[in-house]
């Protein structure tokens, strides 16, 4: 039966007692608690009883009039966290609950995300970024797999070249090209180093030492490969401006530019300027050849991960530099003051003592400058200990950032490969177009609209993706809501 009502037909909501059964978990609520947040689904249950069964079943899955019990086929663990808003005014997400599923549960119970605590919001935001990254990677895979019959032959050729040079995993020949590129980088770097050995250099007619002609030939061959590779990648690039401004492509330009500039200056130097000036310019440009070693980062996910980890550890590195700067200033000033009493002191000034403080705090200790007094040696021992402590403090967070990001990248790569396998399966069944549309919607949603849109949903079927390495038993699949 329905609860008692007033003479005007309204329910006494303050005294209302309702029972909610969520996934087998029963919870008793009172109207005065629920009415604190009238826009939530549970608060609407208090007022829906006077509207008959139609209004009741629009809010719940089932209702037992005899027990006044509402039934919901929802996640009971998430529900236990969400109802805290009625008692404490805020929500904390328990460990072990998928953040995206928890967000969907909050939307179902019509509880605003502003009640979610800041620590949990950060966790949810991290998962959002992971989903967007997976969508981006899958979209790249779909772009590679997609074939548009309306495209010109040149466009198709561009796609093939780009895939051939940028996607080593796409085919066996692409892997061979990637290995060759890596070998050319390695050979070029070795030649640059070996060319500085005096025994392997030759003397020209004017008495100047030059690199051996054989090494020059090898260098020219490597530069030719780098040039051909860069030009082909530039021609086949979908976005020329983005390609030219990319950091790794700027490194590629810096790796090959000194060769051509040096070649031009060498041939035109006698006519344009003094030969000595040309040689100085050539030597300065040849130093820029060390930039080619950074090309290895293109073929090493570990180096890319290390770069990202250092960026994410900017605060820790800044703290380390601040500690060292303060220590260097203090201990160099103390060392200079304490060593002035010794007639053969090596500490001539405080700025000169900076060098001693740096090599002492970093535990290098060249021995070119060292204290000779007792107080100076005591100061050196303290500076050594402080340096060890200062350097050790930020190392652990930096390592954690590296391991976390490296594991995340492996998870995202695995997720993208799983989606690729699913696409190949659907393509064989004639369903590739539908899957492509779903993932394009997901990618477009992450770029054009807010993440917490009703178009992005989570289910537990088909392809599963591990989003958290520490929560491996929670799996989720990306798909768009129809």
Give me the side-by-side strand order of the main sheet. 2-1-4-3
CATH topology of the domain at 160-299: Four Helix Bundle (Hemerythrin (Met), subunit A)
CATH class of the domain at 160-299: Mainly Alpha
Architecture (CATH level 2) name of the domain at 160-299 = Up-down Bundle
Residue-averaged pLDDT, rounded? 76
Question: pLDDT below 50 for ≥5 consecutive residues: which ranges?
Answer: 1-5, 7-11, 445-482
Q: What proportion of the residues is helical, as a percent range?
A: 55-70%
Q: What percentage of amino acids are in beta strands?
A: 5-15%
Features of this protein?
9 strands, 482 residues, disordered N terminus, four-stranded mixed sheet, Potassium Channel Kv1.1, Chain A, 8% strand, Four Helix Bundle (Hemerythrin (Met), subunit A), single chain, disordered C terminus, Helix Hairpins, voltage-gated potassium channel activity, three-stranded antiparallel sheet, flat, alpha+beta
């Amino acid at each position: 039966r329905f609860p008692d009502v007033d003479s005007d037909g309204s329910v006494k909501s303050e005294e209302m007692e309702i029972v909610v059964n969520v996934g087998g978990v029963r919870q008793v609520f009172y109207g005065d608690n629920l009415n604190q947040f009238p826009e939530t689904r549970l608060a609407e249950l208090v007022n829906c009883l006077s509207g008959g069964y139609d209004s009741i079943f629009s809010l719940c899955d089932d209702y037992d009039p005899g027990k006044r019990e509402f039934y919901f086929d929802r996640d009971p663990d998430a529900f236990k966290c969400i109802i805290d808003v009625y008692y404490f005014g805020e929500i904390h997400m328990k460990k072990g609950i998928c953040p995206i599923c928890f967000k969907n549960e909050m939307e179902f119970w019509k509880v605003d995300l502003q009640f979610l605590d800041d620590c949990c919001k950060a966790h949810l935001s991290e998962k959002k970024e992971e989903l967007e990254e997976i969508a981006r990677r899958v979209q790249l895979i779909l772009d590679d797999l997609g074939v548009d019959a309306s495209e010109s032959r040149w466009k198709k050729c561009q796609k093939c070249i780009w895939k051939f040079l940028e996607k080593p995993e796409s085919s066996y020949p692409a892997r061979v090209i990637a290995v060759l590129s890596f070998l050319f980088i390695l050979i070029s770097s070795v030649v640059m180093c070996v060319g500085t050995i005096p025994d392997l250099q030759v003397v020209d007619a004017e008495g100047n030492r030059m690199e051996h002609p054989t090494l020059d030939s090898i260098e020219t061959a490597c530069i030719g490969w780098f040039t051909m590779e860069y030009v082909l990648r530039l021609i086949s690039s979908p976005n020329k401006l983005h390609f030219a401004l990319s950091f790794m492509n700027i490194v590629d330009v810096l790796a090959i530019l000194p060769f051509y500039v040096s070649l031009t200056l060498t041939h035109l130097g006698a006519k344009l300027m003094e030969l000595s000036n040309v040689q100085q310019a050539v030597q300065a440009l040849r130093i820029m050849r060390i930039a080619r070693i950074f090309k290895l980062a293109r073929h090493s996910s570990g180096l890319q991960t290390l770069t990202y980890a250092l960026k994410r550890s900017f605060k820790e590195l800044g703290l380390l530099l601040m500690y060292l700067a303060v220590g260097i200033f203090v201990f160099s000033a103390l060392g200079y003051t304490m060593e002035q009493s010794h007639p053969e002191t090596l500490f001539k000034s405080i700025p000169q003592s900076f060098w001693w403080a740096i090599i002492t705090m970093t535990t290098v200790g060249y021995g070119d400058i060292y204290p000779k007094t007792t107080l100076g040696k005591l100061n050196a021992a303290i500076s050594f200990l402080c340096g060890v402590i200062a350097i050790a403090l930020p190392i652990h967070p930096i390592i954690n950032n590296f391991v976390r990001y490296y594991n995340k990248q492996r998870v995202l790569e695995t997720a993208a490969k799983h989606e690729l396998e699913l696409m190949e399966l659907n393509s064989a069944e004639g369903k590739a177009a539908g899957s492509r549309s779903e993932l394009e919607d997901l990618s477009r949603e992450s770029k054009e609209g807010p993440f917490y849109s009703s178009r992005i949903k989570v289910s537990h079927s088909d392809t599963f993706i591990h989003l958290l390495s520490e929560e491996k038993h929670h799996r989720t699949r990306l798909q768009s809501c129809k």
